[in-house]
Design brief:
Elements: E1 14-18, E2 22-25, E3 31-36, H1 37-42, E4 52-55, E5 58-59, E6 63-64, E7 75-79, E8 84-86, E9 95-98, E10 101-106, E11 114-115, E12 129-135, E13 138-143, E14 147-148, E15 165-179, E16 182-183, E17 188-194, E18 204-206, E19 209-210, E20 216-222, E21 229-231, E22 234-236, E23 239-242, E24 263-267, E25 277-284, E26 287-291, E27 300-306, E28 315-321, E29 324-329, E30 339-345, E31 348-353, E32 356-358, E33 366-371, E34 379-383, E35 386-388, E36 392-396, E37 402-406, E38 409-411, E39 420-423, E40 426-428, H2 431-438, E41 537-540, E42 549-555, E43 563-569, E44 574-577, E45 585-594, E46 597-608
Length: 612
């Protein structure tokens, strides 16, 4: 008897695809015999688990998936070094994964990998255009360091449909992972309507670079009539540069009212049977920076909302931590009153821990806002945050929400007028008044936190140092909280001198960056190496409304020999010099820089550093 054993046999293949087929240059793989896009789209045999379909040259026809991969053995669509998909399709996308599963799109560093060329305001065409699209898909990965977009380059204030220009449009899907790519030139970076027939468990967006040409980064939502849930979605390590590019006139309506949030997480619980849940949504280690748009419909940075006063029992549980959010200009979210974190409607449990929120002026914005139909079902906890230069720290205009705020630093809030702290439509100008009225923020402070230009803590003398509460007990649920933010973000982001471990015992530092890596004590200084700081000079100055940056100079000789030390962002009016030497006399001056150049601002100041 002969026993025939078949082991490890696979039909997986490496294929090359060009617009029309034939012998074509395929970048680094040289000249290859290729199949056409039409053949790829129509032949299920080319969409087999384990297959790699390499795109070569310029593709001008929509690519349509026609098969499924499997767990650990996905179908890969890979861009060669000379490949680009130039397709304008606003109904099913330039690349359409349909309802298929286990497909990986590897953009392989191509900029752009997908685009609608010469499309936008004042350009050759003004077409609706989506980059990647799916309807009912699952386990889709988009990666590779390349760029999706621009799909539409917008300018002006004319109304538009925010769903017409989308980098990734993923409808009724599950388990999407978008990472290490740039999303450019889209009103929405990613629209994701969750499946109403299956649960999602591995949704993740990380190491994205979002330039100023893109509006909202993520619109993540459930519709009506669903009892399904998503667990443990993650939005992290992203670099978002926001401006007022995608703005519309204030009289906009419907989909033309572009919401310019970083993330908008939404459950529409319209009937009593609706019980969709988004559970343990982790938003962390993101760098959000730029000028807020002049668009009154934009509510804030992170928008968490669940059906305004609706009948369903849908619930969101969200943790927002280790984020660095810096607003450098603009009129503020929601035309001044919006929040860096904005909680809207009825059914959210949101925790805001160890973030650094920096605004450009104390006449706009709040650190966090609870708005609309808030009730006791809304729970907001905020601890260990640095809040600098806002109109409001907490802004809670509605009754009923359950709040727990403490161990925060509210620095440079106004000292009079409509400002500072609000609860149930009552304003409190001082933190003492706020504490008396609400019993919140018992251990919070209102002093200069003492940060470097990169928002790391300067030294053990900084007010942010060990002024927080220890949250180690939460790390069994959100392990990422016990490590601080990375040094850099986005496609090429890395820990660098960041990602420092927080202390398992004792007080934590405030903000996104712990000063020391601790395993019970000791360690290295966060952000600037391992030197031990013996002395420092804390510089502060009055703001200049025209300033774009402040240049800090130092000299060893009065009146001459000045060297530029640092350019400080305009929203900060302080800086700490930690490079001084004992027994030395230093002279400092500060200039401001605006559109007209550099101007004197703070005249020479002398500081004598004592001996140890």
């Amino acid at each position: 008897m002969v026993l025939l054993v078949l082991c490890g046999i696979s039909n997986a293949a490496t294929l090359y695809v060009s617009q029309s087929g034939g012998s074509v240059s395929c970048g680094g793989d040289g000249t290859q015999t290729t199949i056409s896009v039409a053949t790829l789209n129509s032949t299920g045999a080319d969409w087999v688990a384990g297959n790699t379909n390499n795109l070569c040259g310029t593709i001008t026809s929509q690519i349509v998936a026609n098969g499924n991969g499997s767990s650990g053995n996905p179908i890969v669509l890979r861009w060669e070094s000379n490949a680009v998909v130039n397709v304008c399709n606003g109904s099913s996308g330039a690349v359409n994964v349909g309802s298929h599963s286990w497909i990986t799109l590897d953009t392989n560093g191509q900029v752009p990998a997908i685009t609608c060329p010469n499309n936008g305001t004042g350009l050759s065409t003004q077409l609706s255009a989506w980059g990647v699209s799916g309807n009912g898909a699952s386990n889709i990965e988009i990666k590779g360091g390349g760029q999706i977009g621009p799909m539409f380059l917008y300018s002006g204030t004319a109304q538009f449909d925010e769903e017409a220009y989308v980098c990734v449009n993923y409808i009724l899907g599950t388990n999407l992972h978008v990472h290490h790519v740039t999303l450019a030139g889209c009103a929405n970076g990613n629209i994701y309507q969750l499946s109403e027939s299956a649960n999602s468990t591995t949704d993740e967006w990380d190491h994205l670079t979002i330039p100023t040409t893109t509006g909202r980064v993520l619109n993540y939502s459930y519709g009506d009539d669903t009892s399904h849930s998503t667990t443990n979605p993650k939005f992290h390590d992203n670099d978002v540069n926001f401006t007022s590019v995608w703005q519309v006139a204030n009289n906009c309506s419907g989909d033309s009212c572009q919401h310019y949030e970083f993330t908008h997480s939404y459950i529409h619980a319209g009937s009593s049977g609706d019980s969709a849940q988004i559970t343990n949504f982790l938003i962390y280690n993101n760098y959000m920076h730029g000028a807020t748009p002049n668009n009154g419909s934009t509510t804030g940075g992170f928008n968490i909302s669940t059906g305004a006063a609706e009948a369903g029992s849908g619930l969101q549980t969200v943790y927002i931590f280790n984020n660095l959010m810096v607003n450098t200009g603009g009129v503020g979210w929601s035309g001044q009153s919006g929040g860096f974190v904005y909680i809207q409607d009825t059914k959210e449990h949101v925790s805001v821990f160890n973030n650094t929120f920096v605004n450009n002026t104390n006449t706009t914005n709040s650190a966090w806002e609870v708005n609309a139909f808030a009730s006791s079902a809304v729970q907001l906890t905020a601890k260990n945050n640095i809040v600098s230069t806002m109109q409001f720290g907490p802004y809670n205009p509605d009754n009923g929400a359950t709040i727990s705020y403490d161990y925060n630093d509210y620095y440079n809030l106004p000292t009079s007028g409509y400002c500072c702290y609000q609860q149930n439509n009552n304003q409190y100008v001082t933190i003492a008044q706020w504490r008396t009225a609400t019993s919140q923020d018992t251990n919070s402070i209102t002093t200069n936190p003492g940060l470097n230009g990169d928002y790391t803590i300067t030294s053990t003398s900084s007010n942010a140092y060990q002024k927080g509460t220890n949250l180690t007990s939460l790390c069994s649920t959100i392990a990422q909280l016990c490590t601080g933010a990375p040094q850099t973000f986005g496609v090429n982001g890395s820990c660098g001198t960041g990602c420092l471990t927080r202390a398992p015992s004792g007080s934590w530092d405030l903000g996104a960056y712990p000063y020391q890596q601790q395993s019970g004590g000791g360690g290295s200084q966060g952000g600037i190496g391992t030197q031990t700081i013996q002395h420092q000079v804390n510089l502060t100055w009055s703001p200049n409304v025209s300033a774009q940056t402040y240049n800090v100079y130092r000299s060893l000789t009065s009146g001459t020999g000045y060297t530029l030390l640092v350019a400080v962002p305009a929203q900060l009016t302080y800086w700490t010099d930690t490079t001084v030497t004992s027994g030395t006399t230093y002279y400092y001056k500060v200039n401001y820089v605006d559109s007209g150049g550099e101007h004197a601002w703070v005249s020479e100041q002398q500081y004598v550093i004592p001996f140890p």
